Amino acid sequence: MKLALEGLAAQLADRLLPVYLISGDEPLLVGEAADAVRARARAGGFTEREVFFFERNSAVWDQVRQAAQALSLFATRRLIEIRMPGGKPGPAGEAALQRLLPGCGEDLVVLLITGKLARETQAAEWVQAVQQRGAWLPIWPVPRAQLTPWLRSRFAAAGLAPSEAALELLAERSEGNLLAARQEIEKLSLLLPPGAQVSLAQLAASSADSARFDAFQLADAVRFGDAARALRILGGLRAEGAEALLILWALVRELRGIQAGGAAGVRRRTPRLPFARLAARAGRADRMAKGLSTGDAWDELALLAVELTGLRTLPLTRLSLAGA
Question: Looking at residue 26, what is its pLDDT?
Fold first, then answer.
């Protein structure tokens, strides 16, 4: 079966499945889901746990096989946990899993933890076998629009009542970094009495800006015409050491969308910005990032991002052939 995160608790309360596959790039949610499976396994008498890490060395699958076969020598139940950050077990791993899964059940539970599975991997035979024998739980980051309600529920679970302003500030400071948000809530729960109100001032004094962004979030901000958010994300990416050319690639994708007709919202916001102007701005950023022209590529990326939201910025200046 394929599970949603919201349905995991009910499924575990019903019964413990022989195998679970938890995939995703959100460390907090993946970790909490895995903790829930481990706790249910312990409650069911699976008191031994062995953890295996797979990256490139296929020899780990021999160790997994030996661990599974050793069950017959001991009168105990065991949880075997296999972590595959890349989500690709390779031919040897796929074959090993196909042999391992039928033996899961009464004395053996297998927990697979991976990063986000690529589309082609989701259709792989080993993933299908997991779903037939147990459950696959894909976990996704909390969207920005749902982050404030998510934080509110976390505060409530901690026995705190934040103001709406405090919630919005924490959402802004922890976007893309749920671990930081949880740590902030835990810290406040230690500092404040149960049931306490959390004001904007208290949250501001306690928390730091721990937001993490990626190029796709920047593209979304541009697409929806939010210049302020686009600039904040761009500043965060620069501070995290992102490659300017990678950011440019994301913005150029949006630029091509405008050229091809793009999303309706983009067409409404940018009718006065000719494609040639935007392309010229992107070209300048590209040359600067590659060291072929003087100037700061990040400044040019900021101008391009703002113009893609529908606002006009500084006029383009001519570059000499030597600097072009």
Answer: 87
